[in-house]
Amino acid sequence: MSSESPASKPAGCAFVTTRWSVVLKAGESDSPKAREALASLCQVYWRPLYAYVRRRGYQPADAEDLTQEFFARLLDRNDLTAVSPERGRFRSYLLAAMNHFLSDEWDKARARKRGGGRVIRLETSVAESAYADSHADGLTGETLFDRRWAITVLEEVYQRLRREYEREGKGALFETLRFSLMGERDAAPYADLAAELRMSEGALKVAVHRLRRRYRMRLRELIAETVSSSGEVEDELRYLLRALGHG
Amino acid sequence: MKTPKHCPNCGGPLPASALDGLCPECMLEVGIVPDSVPEPAVGSGSTVVVEEAHGQPLILPEIGERFGRYRVLRRLGRGGMGVVYEAEETDSGRRVALKVINQKLSSPHDRARFLREGRLAASINHPNCVYVYGTEEIEGTPVIAMEFVTGGTLQQQLNAHGPLAVGRAVDAILQVVEGLEAAHDMGILHRDIKPSNCFEDEQGTVKIGDFGLSISTLPRPETNITESGAMVGTPAFCSPEQLRGEELNARSDMYAVGVTLFQLLTGKLPFEAETIAQLVANTLEKRAKSPAQLRKEVPAGLARVILRCLEKQPSERYRTYADLRRALQPYSSTAPTPATLGLRFLAGVVDLMAISIVGQAVILMTVGDPFAILDWLAKDDIRGWLIFMPCFALVVLYYALSEWRWGATAGKALCRLRVLRADRNYPSLAQALLRALLFVAVPMAPFWVFVIVTGDPLAMAEQSPRVYALSFSYHVLLALLFVTARRRNAFAAIHDLASRTRVVSRAAWELRPALDTIEPQPAGVESKPMVGPYHVIEPLGGGGDAEWAEGYDLRLLRRVLLRMVPVGTPPLPPRLRQITRPGRLRWLTGRRDALENWDAFEGSGGQALLKLAEHPQPWSRVRFWLHDLAVELSAAEKDGTPPLVLALDRVWITRDGRAKLFDCDAPGIGAGTVSSRVVSSGTQSAQAADARNFVQHVAAVALAGRAKEGAEVRAVPGILPLHARQFLDVLPTATGADAIAAALKPLLRRTADVNRMRRAAVVLGCVALPLFMTLAAVLGMSLMQRWQRQNPGLIELSNVLNTWKAKKMPFIPKDQLPSDRLIGVYIAAHYRAVITNQTIWSSAIARALIPRDAREFAEQSLDRNASCAPDELAEAGKQLGPVANQFGEPSMPTPRFIGPFLLWFGLLAYAAIPAFIAALLFRGGLVLRIAGVTFVRRDGRRAGRMRLLWRGVVAWCPVAGALALGLEAMESKSVMTSLLTGLLLVVLATWSLWLPNRGLQDKLAGTWPVPR
């Protein structure tokens, strides 16, 4: 994951103005603030889009160019109005925009000299191996996109959480306890773990509880960035869980 | 970083991610839980077992490893009390769903309860319930081995594709209801019905699984194990009484069925809440929102069914599963059958008769005289409109309101018809009004035009060609409304098309008739000898070289079929051990060694087909068997598991009336006692012919009840419904098992026999029209008497003028009639007062009785014959006096005597004679056709025309006798004779109806009534 991705903000006010709502509010006015917000969102969520383009049948090199061009146009020009986003979620917006782009714009874009610069850093080798590994054969592009989106959200929140713990000097604790983010794991009894970390069992349970609490908070913050109102967060969470279902 | 391929937590495959081996799905599941609530979120659908956890660890199988005699393949999910894995039985290769007790539940109490699930579920053997193969303990861990259902749960489908299509959801729930009904018959309540406990296999069969929380309502050993009063179940699916911890019955499961259907249709739960406490409060107090509000396509009627399941009071829900199934049936994916025009005609006649009887009665009671309304209308008396308009509106409202509210008028309900929109809802009020207006007002339009153009409502009372044409136009326009009806548009009439509704026949839901009731647990099983883990309770005799016995499984408390085979018999081939279809005998387990050689199969009660076929079996049963066999053969053909031998002695009929194919001779059929034709399956191409011959053979033997003759029986004798006969006739040309199953499927829902109700309906249908006409005539006569009193002289005048009219008719000898002059004289002398009385002379009744030209003649007569000679008057009196008084008051027959006479006459004229003609021309008239009845001879073939004519003559001759007696009674004015004649006929008809199967006339004519 890119180390340049935007650092997480402390919790609290995150629910009030979300990045996506900033973008939506800016609408046609094309404010720099909105563009900046959009860019930072795109930097996080380009991978599901890459997987989607690949699933649509483009070769890796084409898919990379295409994704790059898409973002360039999205961020460079005021493309926000071109797609007339249903004032919904960033995820649906991005997919709709890409579909629009693929159907109408791609040929024109290819005819023109490629330009606009590299606005988003794409590590396509990573994305490509993830795509190759994703058993995408039986899935529709949309399903794959949603699944990769859900995984990207989790990756992002996982990395933010890890950096947070590392910053606080609790990297080792995170490494030991990170499996508790997957729920009850009976194979690792708390007593053994506590001994390993030289903590009491009670303290360990508290640490696990805190890790999970912080994880849930960060997860909601991250998702809040991509929806237009804080009321949609739980809905989006459920959507993502459904998207992950059926391995 | 090297990551494992599967999640150690859920067993699912791990997608590539930068999560360092964490499973995204598990992680998101943890993340989705609201932080304040440490327990799983309410509404997530997870089962809550309120129980103390024990910390003692149990062994959990690892994916890919051996676990007892199983190899664990993958984790399928978590049930109420344990984790479920897909596993393979290593010795047989059979796939099973292996449920392993939850690690947290390790006390002896929990283990016993866990195994009890297996025991309760094992007692149910139904295609819509997951079958339990057995329970055991592997390395101290209790497990239950169950049928593995391939298609996943309804919850998974809901997650993957969102809410289900209405028809599909209802189909699934209908199957759930069948499974629950089977469980209920065994005295078992499931208590945890929800989409994630409903499994669907590849053929689309839905099976109820996870009986982890089920309880028995029958006295069985150890049933009280969970009766601690603790609340169990999934809160969102729990009925109010279940939440309150009260005693439960089937209606509690019915509530959960309602919630499940609600969720399948809308993706939402009827009650959602943040916390359990709030959910419980909502479930107990709030009224569920209608699912139709959440999803437009949900028909309002279906929404009502769901809401009725969700009633707080169990007594407000459906009484039985059968009632619920009947209510759900119209919304299943099976397309409704369009109503035939014949049935609609009958329904229309019934409605028209109902309306006119009620209408006339109301008018007679309020106004007293139908013509009075016309008089008022003519005089612009407001009372006329006050009565006429509401009458018109009431007729429209009768159709509109009843079709809007109940989907049918009285006539349609009687003919089992429903008015539906494309979405299977009853029409909206606007649609119903539009339908009714078109249907009522269009045929009446010429009347309106006539009244407006002539400005003379009284003209409608006249007897004139234009009024006849007007009456005729009503019927023509009514018929024209149906000019658009075609088979391809579901016989839609113009008012159906305009309102975008259709009239359909309500499907008859014919249940599969069961053979026996459920057998109780046998006594003293413990002392019986054992084969493997089973006690042998009854030897069933030989089947080939093997010995069959009925065994009992004391662990699972259920019967099994045991087949002891000679030493050296090879084990059953794997492909046979893996079959789980209801049409084949299910293998449970077996052993081959030096001491014991046996196989255990499911025990489903019942008898061998050949045993049953010692007596003729009714079509209502046999059709289900044929369908079962055809479906099984077709499925077997597809997956390459056809039986090597198809033979009559390999067909078993289970207790619940299902046919099963054995892969060996069925028990109870001693070798050599029966010569059954054995059909060996050859090549693929020969399979179709084999299947066809086999089904044909089963049908012939079972219907004829001639098992002993075996091979010889080819033709099917017996009294069968016409559609069954047609099916059997074309059976030899069927292209394969698939085609046979498809042809039989619609027949399963048709009426299989003509019951007394239907025979009574035929009698009533024949009697209705004459009875109606008699009543009308009697009513007319009493009105006539009344008019006579109210308008003295008017009837006489009409009689006199009829004589004048008669002179203008062709073929009447004019010379015997009095001259115009004499008639004029007579009128002027006697009826001046009538003609000059404007109230009488311009009343509707006067215009109805006296045609226009006769009126003019009468008026002119007054002027021309102001004075006349006395002898002329005397001559006129002599000739016209008797004519004038021919229906005069003194000689008028009273309705008391003429009524019965008219009825007998009407029966002969309007029922018997048309019946004779119809018998000769069409082998049955309208009433029989509408009732769907036809007649066959003893050999099962349709009765001929002459025989049916004879049957008609036999049936109607008592009425002819009654007519003679009625005539006599009218002459002698004997009330007793009339009464006795009527009584005699009623007794005869009742006696005939009371006889089973067929009436007196059928016995005399040698015919049997059968459904068409």
Provide a short characterization of the protein structure.
The complex is a heterodimer of chains A (247) and B (1012). Chain A is mainly alpha-helical and 247 residues long.
In angstroms, what is the radius of gyration of chain A?
20 Å
Could you give the distance between the termini of chain B?
74 Å
Largest sheet of chain A: none
Estimated helix fraction of chain B: 40-55%
Strand content of chain A: under 5%
**Helical content class of chain A:** 55-70%
Number of strands of chain B: 28
Largest sheet of chain B: 6 strands, antiparallel
Distance from N terminus to C terminus of chain A (CA atoms, Å) equals: 23 Å
What are its keywords?
heterodimer, A: 247 residues, 10 helices, 64% helix, disordered N terminus, B: 1012 residues, alpha+beta, 6-stranded antiparallel β-sheet, 28 strands
